[in-house]
């Protein structure tokens, strides 16, 4: 079970709920991959990644509910790339915008504890407001992260139903008790969020293009009482109809994530802001109206 929250700390779930109410349920991914860097006229190196990321934060900070830097695109450039990630997180914090660090960490024991310290610990330059984690060494292996997140007021997004074609091999598989892995993950997240208001801080990653996978696997997304991070909105094909089909009555918990759909409008600041505003309106119409 998560540890008690430190006095005066506002939980991530409450902060995210307020941000989405104010700015719409949109998270913009910061994915400085080689093609986007080239399209923006930037070199595929740590300096280019840093410039790209800070331009996104400068354009969208304070204008969207959250920003989601993808750690892999920084780590591929070594120490200087990781330093750029740290600077990006700090810039978003200074702009008053929540950050979800998309690192998908998952391990056991002291190693998971070390990942938790890195991405969820107070004072760590890699700690945003939430981090993505993998439960496929067993949901219980995430306990060090869940405990530290609860204590520091940060959040987790646990991989549950992803849109990659290999995902169903694991996520749709059933336990000896006949429950799907995805449904088990969702139920254990729900247990950690029990009683939280307006919602808990342990969310799930559920692809916006998975169709009827939640229903087919018996995964009760509405019962999670936590945020549902939905990659795949915009350039990857998910619109209002797909969001409604995937999430149904759980739509108000969804934080729609768009990366290329917004970033391809850069590097022009006005273009980025217009694309993000349009995406936020579309997400609000699909998920809140």
From TrEMBL:
InterPro entries, per the entry: Aldolase_TIM, OMPdecase_AS, OMPdecase_type-2, OMPdeCOase_dom, RibuloseP-bd_barrel
Protein keywords: Decarboxylase, Lyase, Pyrimidine biosynthesis
Catalysed reaction equations from the record: orotidine 5'-phosphate + H(+) = UMP + CO2
Cross-referenced Pfam families: OMPdecase
GO molecular function: orotidine-5'-phosphate decarboxylase activity
Presence of the UniProt keyword Ribonucleoprotein in the record: no
Domain Orotidine 5'-phosphate decarboxylase: 25-275
Pathway: Pyrimidine metabolism; UMP biosynthesis via de novo pathway; UMP from orotate: step 2/2
Family, similarity comment: Belongs to the OMP decarboxylase family. Type 2 subfamily.
Alphabetical list of HAMAP family matching this protein: OMPdecase_type2 (MF_01215)
Protein name: Orotidine 5'-phosphate decarboxylase
Organism of provenance: Xylanimonas oleitrophica
Lineage: Bacteria, Bacillati, Actinomycetota, Actinomycetes, Micrococcales
Gene: pyrF
């Amino acid at each position: 079970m998560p540890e008690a929250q430190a006095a005066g700390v506002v939980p991530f779930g409450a902060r995210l709920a307020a941000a989405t109410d104010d700015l719409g349920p949109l998270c913009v991914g910061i994915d400085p991959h080689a093609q986007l860097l080239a399209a923006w006229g930037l070199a595929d190196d740590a300096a280019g990644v840093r410039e790209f990321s800070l331009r996104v934060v400068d354009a969208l900070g304070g204008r969207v509910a959250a920003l989601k830097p993808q750690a892999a695109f920084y780590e591929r450039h070594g120490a200087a790339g990781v330093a750029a990630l740290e600077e990006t997180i700090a810039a978003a914090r200074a702009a008053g915008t929540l950050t979800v660090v998309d690192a998908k960490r998952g391990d056991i024991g002291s190693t998971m504890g070390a990942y938790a310290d890195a991405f969820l610990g107070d004072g760590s330059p890699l700690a945003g407001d939430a981090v993505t984690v993998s439960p496929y060494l067993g949901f219980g292996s995430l306990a060090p992260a869940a405990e530290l997140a609860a204590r520091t007021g940060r959040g987790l997004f646990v991989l549950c139903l992803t849109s990659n074609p290999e995902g169903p091999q694991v996520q749709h598989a059933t336990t000896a008790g006949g429950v799907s892995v995805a449904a088990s993950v969702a139920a254990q997240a729900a247990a950690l969020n029990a009683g939280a208001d307006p919602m808990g801080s342990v969310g799930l990653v559920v692809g916006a293009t998975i169709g009827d996978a939640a229903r087919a696997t018996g995964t009760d997304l509405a019962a999670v009482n936590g945020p549902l991070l939905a990659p795949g909105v915009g350039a990857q094909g998910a619109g209002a109809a797909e969001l409604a089909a995937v999430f149904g009555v759980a739509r108000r918990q969804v934080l729609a994530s768009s990366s290329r759909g917004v970033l391809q409008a850069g590097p022009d600041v006005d273009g980025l802001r217009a694309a993000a505003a349009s995406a936020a309106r579309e997400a609000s119409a699909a998920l809140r109206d």
